[in-house]
Amino acid sequence: MKLRRYIVVLSLVAAGLLAAACGGASSPAAPTSPKPTANPDTAAKIVPAMQAAVASASSVHIAGTVLDGSQHATIDMSFVGGDVSGTLSEGSQSYTLLVVSGKAYFKVDQAFLQSANPPASDCSSMCGKYVAVPGAQLSQLTGSLSMSSITQQFVKSLPSSVSHDTADLFVPATLNGQPVLQFTQSPYTIDVAATGAPYLLYAADASQGTLTFSQWNSVPPLTPPPAGDVITL
Q1: Given 21, 103, 107, 216, which is the most exposed site by the fewest CB atoms within 10 A?
Q2: Residue 175 half-sphere exposure toward CB, CA atoms < 13 A
Q3: Can you list the residues of the chain whose pLDDT is less than 70?
Q4: pLDDT tens digits, one per residue of 18-43
Q5: How many domains does the structure of the chain reveal?
Q6: What residues make up the domain containing 189?
Q7: Is the pTM above the cut of 0.85?
């Protein structure tokens, strides 16, 4: 099932942006304009604090598009503990998934029906309902689809050099009107919250894509679909 690979790719890309931008394996080009120096914070201060905030978070919403091989993978999903809700797509494939209390469901829409190959006319009676994922396939699908799996990528995949980087600076900026601390070094941009816990809010690579992170610890609880809306395909 490609869905599990999608979410691993997306979370690793976000962690990889941090590693590459803040002294990781790659060596990005120098910025085209001087960085502002007002109230600077080094990566050695910001990144460990961000890791600690992310590791203790109970929920988050992730949205964006990144390059996965030759295609763009798009995510728009909420994570609450082990529960997940939202949409994943790549190329012509798109899935709306709901995972609640250890049970997973696909929402039936035209894209899902096309991948399942029933008659197109079935959409009139089935679209908007949910198909339960068989128990035998559940662990393969949801093994990496959880809050803990996502946040661990940001904590465990970053090299120690990032946490000791005193050369790269995060400086005051705004993101959609919100004050942030921003690191920019072409082609990377990383924003963390400037007030309260320094949660990751935005990560971008000009050649790979962007991810936004919102609703840290404030995603509403997810609920299963009504029993009458669960069908067998």
Answers
A1: 103
A2: 23
A3: 1-40, 116-121, 135-144, 154-159, 161, 233
A4: 566 555 433 333 333 444 444 568 88
A5: 1
A6: 2-231
A7: no
